Amino acid sequence: MSVPILGADSWREYRGKPASAGLNETTHLAKVADTLGKLRDCFVKLLPANSPALLCEALGWILARKSDVPCPEFGAILLVPVDRLRKSQALPASLDGVALCPAWCSEVVAGKAVRQVHKMAFFLARRNCLRSRDARKIAAFDKWSDLRDRNFGNVIQSGQGGYVAIDHESLLHDLLWVPTGRGFEERSLLVEAERSLGAADFQRFQVDMASAANGHAQALEDAQVDLQEIIGKLIPAHAAAATQAIVQTLDQRAQSGWLANSLGVIA
To answer: pTM of the entire structure?
Structure first.
């Protein structure tokens, strides 16, 4: 499924600040109309075009859905009317004089971030997450896509009991972020599993990650048309070279045995 690009008229109603907004001070909740006019409750995060963040969010959402990694059903790029948003929420000075700002928009997942669980119960919530099949699929996806900032604030325990990945801003870290001189501190479910699980359970976690990686090559093949389309829309002047570099990087990391070798396990 390609990522739609929605105009300012799709940003319908400000709905407040989320309980866990993260570091981006523009993050907010809003009613957003999709391409069919259906109103959706969404997280909206303004991401000006001077960084790879918006492209990474779009690429990550496409790849996650093709990889059968649990993620929000709806994702879009949204042009946010800055003056309208400023009436409800303080915004950074960098947005002064800006009429429209691109944002990543994803539908709210019913549930709660694992990090938001009351601190007395966080130990158990963390272990339950890491023992889940979803966590191992998410961890495998993050390793494949070189996503560096997967913390328990962007893993949602849904109302159905599963775990959903949100926030792909740090995707393709070495390829897209390092050349800008910016980067992310490495946080991952794999590191959390090593800290929190016993030796046997951690090894099982890694083996399950390696098994989940078997689907990455097919996911990349299925996603290529959508990847090429969104890259062409967001960075048209560099689309051909960027597409080639992105697909080549993902293809190398999707090869049979790549993740198992990286982890030092036999799947």
So the answer is: 0.95
